[in-house]
Amino acid sequence: MQNIVEHFQECVRAAARDQRPLRVRGGGTKDWYGQRLEGDILATRDYAGIVDYEPTELVITARCGTPLAEVETALAERGQMLAFEPPHFGAGATIGGAIASGLSGPRRANSGAVRDFVLGCKLLDGKGDVLTFGGQVMKNVAGYDVSRLQAGALGTLGLLLEVSVKVLPRAPCEATLVFEGVAEVDAIRRLNEWAGQPLPMSASCWHDGVLALRLSGANAAVDAAIRALGGDVMPDCARFWERLREQQHAFFAGDMPLWRLSVPSTVGAIVLGSAQLIEWGGAQRWLRAPGDAQTAERIRATVRACGGHATLFRGGDKSAGVFQPLARPVAAIHERLKAGFDPAGIFNPGRMY
Amino acid sequence: MIPAIPVDPERRRAVAAALRAVLPARAVLADPEDTRPYECDGLAAYRQLPMVVTLPDDEAQVLAILKVCRELDVPIVPRGAGTGLSGGAQPLADGVVISTARLNRIVRVEPYARTAVVQPGVRNLAISDAAAPFNLYYAPDPSSQIACTIGGNVAENSGGVHCLKYGLTVHNVLRVRVCTIEGDVIELGGDALDAPGLDLLAVFIGSEGMLGIVTEVTVKLVPKPAQAQVIMASFDDVATGGNAVASVIAAGIIPAGLEMMDRTSSRMVEPFVKAGYDLDAAAILLCEADGTALEVAEEIARMTEVLREAGASAITVSQSEAERLRFWSGRKNAFPAAGRISPDYYCMDGTIPRKQLAHVLARIEEMETTFGLRCANVFHAGDGNMHPLILFDANQPGELERAEAFGAAILALCVEVGGTITGEHGVGVEKIDSMCVQFRAQELDAFFAVKRAFDPRMLLNPNKAIPTLNRCAELGSMRVSGGVLPFAHLPRF
Description:
- The structure holds two protein chains of two kinds.
- By secondary structure, chain A is α+β, with helices and mostly antiparallel strands.
- Chain A contains eleven helices and 17 strands.
- In chain B, helix 10 crosses helix 12 and helix 14 runs antiparallel to helix 15 (399-416).
- The interface between A and B is large, with 89 and 95 residues.
């Protein structure tokens, strides 16, 4: 494995010298995500393998190219899981890609996001140096938290060689309740009210009048919640949430661009003229709408007014910008951080902004 | 330690005058009589009189202070309640302290959204008090929560005894509003669950006041569990206790609290709090379940079984809220109890992989002989965060230096076994030399790149938390093998 790191280092140093951008790529399952792809592919798939897994320490450390499925299988064998429930979006998804893309699944509102579980990393920076940040322990305030910064950085700050991630036990009991004929505003209200009570909620989905609520926890807690909330118990619910996570739900079919609206969970119905699917207790809303500049501006202005931001998640020609533009001083901090970690600007340039 | 640096009176006059021109008179303190209370934080062995102290009432005044400091090139030290244990708020002889004491308003509590918007000087516990009528609370509960402020918690990424289950500050803060050194007001995070761009909020939390001045914080509130119960388990040796913790986790349980004390600690606190601890046990484990009555009953039963199988020599389950609080009282009063039996104590904060516990405690016991000082160990067992309390008497010549060397040796040991020098108290000025043990030049360079990205002028809380390469190089020349630092004869600040 050391020779692979040396190969990466050579690639990075050569790229920096020649000013040739590098496109860091794991399984390539999320190539469609982000602003643009540029540069020679730096393939990470061969740098694979679980380095350390101590179920009783609640930590797994893996090389970036390790298949996400391999990580999840290893955890499942010991009754544990990645609590941020990352989407794969394809068979070859890697743990490095899951962290770098920063995408969290249905459990996010209740358990936390990718960044909440990142404990440490080894990062190959733009000078070809291997840097170590954080560690394998849950509490660590030595130095700035550069590891969590890598979650969602889309590989723009360096090549994430290795990550240590906090894992959690799977709940002993899981069930899904289905409520039919629920209007959008009622679903949003119920989800927010429930979130203020000690209920073992672990995911939610509303679309087209149907509200699904997943409960995960101690048997007693799940049973009590089922009795308290009513609704119908969904059979084979694991499949439903997996399909939702992978965007295989019928809502996601077709070629119309997909927008992701990240908003405060309490925002009422956001009227943008087409169907939505609501997750994360109201905090993540999916919208099918064109990606042209005019539509983009209308969506972003509306969502900004609600206190959120909109991402052109999939599809469209991206000319209107995939990610919501940043305030000028925040953009300046981004530029200086990028220059600090990647002085030659070779890692995934333009993938984010 | 080094003697405090005298403040240059000329410079003080000039800076104070410039500040008074833009602030109300009561917001600027320059007379040593008035600035004396600011000379240290919870790391009281290190004292330095600040040049000037400011007490802004609002964000506009914070911006005005930053402008003056920028123009006159004056370094700034932000300060909350001053309860920090690593000297993060230690003033500078040529610097201005920005105290958040008057930025102490709870702007709003939003029960429906389960958030609270507060100014940085609001005390941690005051947030939970304000949320209590809605059956909500702010989860991170550092033991200083009655006094410490949310601004300080953001600076240090504070934890608490419940963070295994409920997370640290970084997991419970949604948004910070920040004045940058350049005079911009920026927002990191937001009311949604994420924000566009890099996750600057994650970097900002725990940055020890070195990246910007916080003027407002939005925190997450969570529903109060209906009930809690705690198990007190005794173990005949520390290794068995450590393994029992592993067994609880392996059984798929995340207790609400999971704390361990060694015999030195339990014997130290028992006369003080009369918690009813088993004084013959080598280690005592406190293991808490919270939730609905049914949930708690189910979890307590599972944990009891696991602990018994793991070799607990005695198990007691709290039968009332009063008894639960009594079991906890000993653990929560470990620091005051140390102060009662010893003139001084030095609290360390390293974190280790839990499987290394028995090994690390055995090595610390050896060090007690080496350094000729006693050490009591309390331990956030769930997450590996240790708080060895080194007992000493600063009035005995050489004891403070020995305590510091003992502490540095413990931190080097934490790094050696794969851990870190600080789990929740921060680096500040206290552990800045130990940073050289944990990080290499390349990583320190990267930290400075982060620092410069936010604070290109390097004026915010300079010379804290991240050591310069020169400093590490000087230190390296005196490091001995095994990563153990020798007695600290050289200045350390």
